[in-house]
Amino acid sequence: MAFRITGLSPEPFRHLFGLSEEALAEQGVVRRVVGADSGFPDRIEMREGRPGEVFLLLNHICQPADSPYRATHAIYVRDGAEETYDQVDRVPDVMRRRLLSLRGFDADGMIVDADVAPGTEIEALIERLFANPKVAYIHAHNARQGCYSGRIDRA
Fold first, then answer.
1. Rounded to whole angstroms, how far apart are CA atoms 96 and 121?
2. What pTM was computed for the model?
3. Radius of gyration (Cα) for the chain, nearest Å?
4. Which of 24, 49, 151, 154 could form a disulfide with 29 if both were Cys (CB 3.0 to 4.6 A apart)?
5. Mean pLDDT in consecutive groups of 10 residues from the start of the chain, 155 residues
């Protein structure tokens, strides 16, 4: 079964790009500079941060559904990221490197099914979740930190 993984649009974050530490702090955003070990997964371009790049750590509404599963969590976005990741049948490396929690939601934003798998093995879990016709879309989260990772739809 074909699937499509998408990152976030840069539009809601553009107003933060290039702001001072003080201006970011007023909005609850923290600037981080990537060191030798990344650990900064960009949610727009769906890639790891490279040494010296500037990332913004902020709270994001990852599940906007008007349901008990409405959710927010911390995410990283690269300051200046512009190209939204959008690929069919291709899992980005930033997801492959992590243990992921996949949550299958119905059209009303209710969880129908969920499970955890290493990023190297999520295709089988995606296929299993989408085998249920009630699953309208899947959210991937980093299982350890809980951060939103990306959205998965049927292609």
1. 8
2. 0.93
3. 16
4. 24
5. 96 97 97 88 96 96 93 96 98 96 97 97 97 98 92 97
